[in-house]
């Protein structure tokens, strides 16, 4: 018997259509609780950090502690049958991209959490990575919200590396760029790729 996919982790660079894809999943599959993981916060409750740290090291440690707890909670929800329909807008792969580039620590710890939480045996969660074809894309427009628009290719390469390391069994990469026009593929085409069995 094939497990029913009813939980989704949607990952990828800014402005590649994560929200649009989530709207499509909701319209096609009905109600899902949607969690949006935003940038981590450096919170006072995670201090004091170990003595002898510089201010930058203390901030990195605080951000790490925030993220580590966030992802443990996320994986608990994904494994909990009580939460039968769940979509995470951004998830743990971004930690392997943004933590080393912008936060001052290594994000590889997320894979230890994946394994410890049994995600390698979780067959009702689908990990989706949206990708841009940089050779032909003409749909990107900077909005000033990203960390550094000049590093999009580097960030995407790190997303792909993290995706390949993930132990989640049901995963797929979707290129959102139409190779012929450089525009976005249609919403329906991307949605069909995301939901195909």
Structure, described:
It is a single chain. This protein is an alpha/beta fold and 197 residues long. It has one domain: P-loop containing nucleotide triphosphate hydrolases (Rossmann fold, 3-Layer(aba) Sandwich), CATH 3.40.50. The protein contains 6 helices and 5 strands. The protein has helices spanning 18-29, 55-79, 95-103, 109-116, 152-165, 187-195, and strands at 7-12, 33-36, 86-89, 125-131, 170-175. Helix 1 (18-29) packs across helix 6, helix 2 (55-79) packs parallel to helix 4 and helix 3 (95-103) packs across helix 5.
Strand order of the largest sheet: 2-3-1-4-5
Helix content: 25-40%
Which blocks of ≥5 consecutive residues have pLDDT under 50? none
**Number of domains as seen in the coordinates:** 1
Which architecture does the CATH hierarchy give at level 2?
3-Layer(aba) Sandwich
Please compute the radius of gyration using only Cα atoms: 17 Å
H-E order: EHEHEHHEHEH
Largest sheet: 5 strands, parallel
CATH superfamily assignment?
A: P-loop containing nucleotide triphosphate hydrolases
CATH topology: Rossmann fold
Structural class, judged by helices and strands? alpha/beta
Shape: globular
Instruction: Summarize model confidence as the mean pLDDT.
Output: 89
Number of helical stretches of at least 4 residues: 6
Beginning-to-end CA distance, first to last residue:
13 Å
Give the tags:
39% helix, 197 residues, five-stranded parallel β-sheet, Rossmann fold, 6 helices, alpha/beta
